[in-house]
């Protein structure tokens, strides 16, 4: 029996339950349990839990051998206070599903319900509910989990809702989809001194004030072509908030962003060289670490064509508007293991942007995303 209004009402209610109980990256244990409980009536042929942390992979096998098709959603929420005022608002102070991962997971839950009623003719469908997308750590943890070999796909799909794009429209194109990025933390250590005798210390003041504009000048954006680079200073701190102490410590947070992984390696080397030069001239010790590391997300042509065909068959208008994105997406790491493609699904041209405190996933996108993925699955694997 095809999915009907009752199914989507139940799935929408479940999406709102996820929304009420958000968990940040790496802490999605209760969310993962909710996913497993909701999927249980669909009777997957195999369920891998704890994948790459709290990931859940549900496998639906066809009647005959064939390729493995993976479809991914995300489990994690953001450390941001929600201000939607919705009845299903977050019950967790300072944490909310403000990127739509609850909605993406609801779409996969709907796909699971349909596959539970009617398996593909051949091959396997793997529905991956991935942890820790927001930090870039989740996909890396999943693909390096030894059990990933059991579900390694021949092709992979994903989507992301897109405020700013007309509602129900899709954007997809081969090639770059989302930027590589990484958070660079530069720690400079000298020697504190009494503010009346700063010459007896080693201050990081000149180094930090030099580095912020010089790092920014390494990448000021521009067209999203192969040469695109951007460096954004996101945080800085020097010493303690006191008038009697000349500082001996400083730190800078900078986000590096490029359109390719090769470009990121070059930008990283340039940024590190600047930081070491500034530290050496000032007589400072330096330590550089990285967090929130995202590979470039590239759409494989064959996976794009599979999704584009499904979108058009299901009557979804298709464009390449807004691609590639400056934002990052760790689905690129999954794309390093198989031909993969991701598309944007429009939430409305004036809809609140993701990561904004007034954002809430539009439930009317659930049936649209579901029918596109189901069509792509049937096109690739057939249907009983």
TrEMBL record:
Pfam families: M20_dimer (PF07687), Peptidase_M20 (PF01546). Keywords: Hydrolase. Residues 182-281 form the Peptidase M20 dimerisation domain. The keyword Hydrolase applies. This is Amidohydrolase.
């Amino acid at each position: 029996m095809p999915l009907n209004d009752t199914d989507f009402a139940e799935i929408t209610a479940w999406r709102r339950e996820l929304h009420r109980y958000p968990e940040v990256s790496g802490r999605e244990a209760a969310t993962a349990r909710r996913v497993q409980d909701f999927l249980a009536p669909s009777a997957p042929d195999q369920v891998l839990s704890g994948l790459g942390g709290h990931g859940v992979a549900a496998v639906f096998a066809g009647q005959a051998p064939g390729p493995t098709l993976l479809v991914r959603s995300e489990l994690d929420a953001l450390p941001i206070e929600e201000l939607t005022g919705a009845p299903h608002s977050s019950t967790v102070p300072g944490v909310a599903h403000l990127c739509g991962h609850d909605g993406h997971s609801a779409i996969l839950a709907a796909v699971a319900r349909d596959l539970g009623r009617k398996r593909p003719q051949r091959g396997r469908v793997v529905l991956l509910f991935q942890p820790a997308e927001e930090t870039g750590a989740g996909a890396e943890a999943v693909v390096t989990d030894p059990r990933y070999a059991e579900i390694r796909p021949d092709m992979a799909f994903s989507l992301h809702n897109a405020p700013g794009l007309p509602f129900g429209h899709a954007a997809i194109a081969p090639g770059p989809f989302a930027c590589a990025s990484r958070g660079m933390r530069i720690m400079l250590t000298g020697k504190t001194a009494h503010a009346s005798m700063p010459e007896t210390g080693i201050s990081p003041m000149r180094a930090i004030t030099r580095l912020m504009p010089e790092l920014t000048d390494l990448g000021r954006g521009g067209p999203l072509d192969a040469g695109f680079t951007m460096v954004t200073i996101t945080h800085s701190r020097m010493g303690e908030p006191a008038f009697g102490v000349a500082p001996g410590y400083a730190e800078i947070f900078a986000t590096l962003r490029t359109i390719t992984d090769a470009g990121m390696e070059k930008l990283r080397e340039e940024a590190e060289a600047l930081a070491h030069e500034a530290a050496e001239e000032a007589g400072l010790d330096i330590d550089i670490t990285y967090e929130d590391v995202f590979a470039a997300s590239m759409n494989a042509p064959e996976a794009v064509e599979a999704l584009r065909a499904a979108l058009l068959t299901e009557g979804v208008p298709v464009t390449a508007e807004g691609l590639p994105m400056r934002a990052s997406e760790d689905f690129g790491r999954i794309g390093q293991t198989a031909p993969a493609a991701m598309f944007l699904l429009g939430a409305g041209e004036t809809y609140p942007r993701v990561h904004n405190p007034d954002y809430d996933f539009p439930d009317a996108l659930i049936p649209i995303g579901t029918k596109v993925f189901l069509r792509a699955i049937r096109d690739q694997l057939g249907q009983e």
